[in-house]
Amino acid sequence: MTMVAPPAAGGMAGMAGAMRSGRARVSAARQFGTVMGLVALSAMLWALTPHFLTVSNLLNVAQQTSINAVVAAGMTYVIISGGIDLSVGSIVALSGVVLGVALQSGQALPVALALGASVGVACGMVNGALISWGGLPPFIVTLGMMSVARGAALLFTEGRPVSGFDPGFRSIATGTVFFIPAPILVMAGVYLAAHLVLSRTIFGRYVYAIGGNEEATRLSGVNVRFHKMMIYGVSGLMSAVAAVLLTARLNSAQPIAGMMYELDAIAATVIGGTSLMGGGGTLAGTLVGALIMGVLRNGLNLLGVSSFLQQIVIGAVIVGAVLIDTLLKRRRG
Amino acid sequence: MTIPGPAPSSDAPPRLEMLGIRKAFPGVVALDGVDLTLRPGEVHMLLGENGAGKSTLMKILSGAQRGDAGEIRMHGQPVEIASPRDALGLGIRVIYQELNLVPQMTVAENVYLGVAPRSFFGIVDQRRLRRETGQLLAALGMDLPPDAVVGSLSLAERQLVEIAKALAAPSATPEDVASVLVMDEPTSALTAKEVDQLFALIQRLAARGVAVVYITHRLDEVFRLGHRVTVLRDGRNVATCAIGEVTPATLVRLMADRDVGGHFPRERVAPGDELLRVEEVSRDGQLTDISFSLRAGEIVGIAGLLGAGRSELARVLAGADRHSSGRIIIGGAPVTLRSPADAIERGIGLLPEDRKAQGLVPDLTSAENIGLPHGRRLSRFGFIKRVREQQLADGIVRDLRVKTAPRQVVRLLSGGNQQKVVLGKWLAGDARIFIFDEPTRGVDVCAKIEIYHLMNRLTARGAGIIMISSELPELLGMSDRILVMHGGRIRAEMDARSATQAQVLSAALGLAS
Predict the structure, then answer these.
(1) Is the per-residue pLDDT at B446 higher than 70?
(2) Residue B434: what pLDDT?
(3) H-run or E-run covering B73
(4) Which of A163, B358, B380, B442 could pair with B352 as two cysteines, CB 3.0-4.6 Å apart?
């Protein structure tokens, strides 16, 4: 095999070095920014109120964040793959009431958990199947599921909450292990597993590839439709896990639970640096994003800001974070 | 064949001078003191390999980027171009490779986007808009209805709309609007006839005094259209010559600074066993009774105009689309290709026409792209065997001489290197049937030659290649046999060694041979 002589190797290598590792470096810089945002926010609250930086309050923040963080983990998969899932809040409610009814009818805890999880996964996979094989936009399909799952939860319980569970189940929310509240451990476990799957498995690779270029992925022989179904299934599973935490904490499964969860989850994901265009993002970023949301809510509460004003502040923070991101990207670009 | 229009007088005062332009990015000097002089009425070809600095130079001219040093003069006067607005104010118009049109709007609305004639209250005057667009299109010799929705136009027609847009201003003629017109590889998606139209337009504009800068990789265009040519290499001027003074071989040498032998270094080998046979394959409305065979060691070229069914055939063979009737036989056994995965399993690898849209995931690294079709082989219990994946990719990257850093995403690679990564996806498996759809589109001369060498190497190893190309010299130079498609059918089969461009072209146009 004769080849043309190699070009001036030094110049190319130098240029390649300068451009090295585009995705990893950009997202590392972006993640550093998100962490700094969290640190700055915390420092501000520490200066403004003595109640913020106490062990009990911080544990409280982490505990309150855990539910949104778990939902946002699933949302991260979906958004990296180039989709969106608006049905997460309703799936939390449906999965929660199924779990609650199963527990109250005397099912063993593992059976009840499995039932709740199955309902969540099934809803997600129906979303994914309609998007893949039906060729419908994710926005529409999950908007429909948002209504269907909510209606199903109301129908199933005739609109009434299912309350009162035994302490064994409630310990998922109230228990501690070495002084660490159980929900924080659940959240940590979920993120560790979800991170490993996303970064180390072939499924995780396909999540990025589908979001980056679906057609090229399909032409590479990847069964894109099946994997998209599974991605929405993961999101459904995460909603089911969040439903367990929520039901245990409230000691009640409510068909109207999980309202607006989709917004918080999308916000955490996007603040965490995941691109709404798909193809890029990390779970570590989403976790920090969820913590920012949690700290912000907590801080505004501690400062006695009215809940009406809180909504405005949180909305502004979401848009501001993405705006900064976009401006930085433009300058880099 | 168009012939360059009359050369403008060489002692005319320059319209534009760029002097000692310098631009450094972190880690690389993109431009190191580049000069470019444009005379009114000339078509100035800007030639260079990818990374030579052509695009950066034009970005500085258009105000998209600022140079670190150097001076720009218009009509002999120093000017400051700090933003695209400044450049527009000076009559500098740039038409980029990517089109910036709103597909849902009409031709007229796009052409006057932002500068639409308005009546009182700032309402767009639709009648005047249509009339002025009609006049502009007529003045430019474009046969386009002002009311057509841009989304319904062909790529070539959209290109014309983009040009009209660059030259549009209310109540002004094109040559008043643009004193300098820059075009960045405008023909990469056009058919031969459309290229002729575009070139005629460029020549008309030049004849009216517009100074045109034309960036290209294609040597034939340099000689068809240019008056002068400037060659850049590694951010420096190599030469500026009048077209009459140079030959293609000289330009290639100037661009590469090394002697490149024949343009088409095909090393033909004796064909071996039949790898693929296609029998009367049809797909409704796109393909009719396609039959041919491909043997080991062969390159079968497929010629045809845009819309002749060439890419549709490629997609059927790659399992991306289903065929409605007929048989595909691989290695003697009939196969059903339900999905790309089926085709890959049968040893078929597709290098799609549109690398960026179909061949690569831009934000993944070379290794990740190369590994993408081989997920099952590169993983255990669902977990990726990273070391194995990296070793596989390293071998390919070394073998194909892909210029890439270890963790670099493929979006940042040049066109030729991206093409090699797409090829690498299939070399990493056991593909024996390769479909190259426009393999050298948008890559520079040197990368082209490297791709031809790779094709030789594949056929020497016993692979068969189906090469779809719009470049007749490439088809004639690299193929063993040429199939000519027209209207979804194969109209002619020729031996590439004896066929002529005229024969291929007349069959592609549907004329009886």
Answers:
(1) no
(2) 94
(3) strand B69-74
(4) B358
Rg over alpha carbons for chain A, rounded to the nearest Å, is 22
Is B27's CB within 8 Å of A17's CB? yes
- Could you tell me which residues come within 8 angstroms of residue B493 by beta carbon, excluding any fewer than 6 positions away? B292, B481, B482, B483, B484
Contact A212 B407 (CB under 8 A): no
Q: What is the number of other CB atoms lying within 10 angstroms of the CB of residue B356?
A: 16
* CA distance, residue A143 to nearest chain B CA (Å): 26
Distances A131 to A142, B365, B451 between C-alpha atoms, Å: 9, 28, 39
Give strand ranges (E) for A214-326.
252-253
Count Cβ neighbours within 10 Å for each residue of A63-88 and write b for 16 or more, e otherwise: bbbbbbbbbbbbbbbbbbbbbbbbbb
ipTM of the modeled complex: 0.80
Q: How far is CA A166 from the centre of its chain?
A: 29
Give, to the nearest 10 degrees, the angle between helix A55-80 and helix A224-250.
Answer: 160
> Is any Cβ of chain A less than 8 angstroms from the Cβ of B344?
yes
- Helices A261-271 and A307-332, axial angle in degrees (round to 10): 30
* DSSP calls for B347-364: TEEEE-SSIIIII--TTS
Question: Which residues are CB-contacts of B243 (< 8 A; sequence separation ≥ 6)?
Answer: B4, B45, B222, B223, B226, B227, B228, B229
Place of tokens 């590839």: A209
Contact B387, B475 (CB under 8 A): no
Inform me whether the pLDDT recorded for B387 exceeds 70: yes
- A213 to chain B: closest CA residue: B361
Chain A residues touching B352 at Cβ < 8 A: 216, 219
pTM listed for this prediction: 0.70
H/E stretch holding B295 reads strand B287-295
- Residue A256 neighbours by CB distance under 10 Å: 14
- Chain B residues with CB inside 8 Å of A1's CB? 453, 456-457, 460
From start to end of B413-488, where are the E strands? 433-437, 464-468, 481-486
Selected for mutation to probe chain B from A1, A3, A4 (highest B CB count within 10 Å) is A4
Closest CA to B18 of B245, B255, B232, B244: B232
Assess whether pLDDT exceeds 80 at residue A4: no
pLDDT in tens, B454-501: 899 899 989 999 999 988 888 888 999 999 998 889 999 999 888 888
First to last CA, chain A: 39
Question: For tokens 């290695």, what's the residue?
Answer: B331
Q: How confident is the model at residue A80, as a pLDDT?
A: 95
Give the phi and the psi of residue A305 in degrees, each rounded to 5.
-75, 135
Using CA atoms, how far residue B485 sits from B282, B429, B474, B488, B496, in Å, is 13, 30, 16, 6, 15
Confidence of residue A23 (pLDDT cuts 50, 70, 90): very low
Q: Average pLDDT in the A104-126 region?
A: 94
Residue B387 DSSP SS3: helix
DSSP letters for B59-70:
HHHTTSS--SEE
B325 forms bridges with which residues in the sheet? B282
- Amino acid, single-letter form, for residue B249: A
Whether A123 and A87 have beta carbons less than 8 Å apart is answered as: yes
Min Cα distance B262 → chain A (Å) is 12
Residue B371: count other Cβ atoms within 10 Å of its Cβ.
Answer: 29
DSSP single-letter state for residue A321? H
Encoded amino acid at B331, one letter = G
Q: What are the angstrom distances between the C-alpha of A80 and each of A125, B60, B359?
A: 17, 35, 19
The confidence score (pLDDT) of residue B116 equals 63
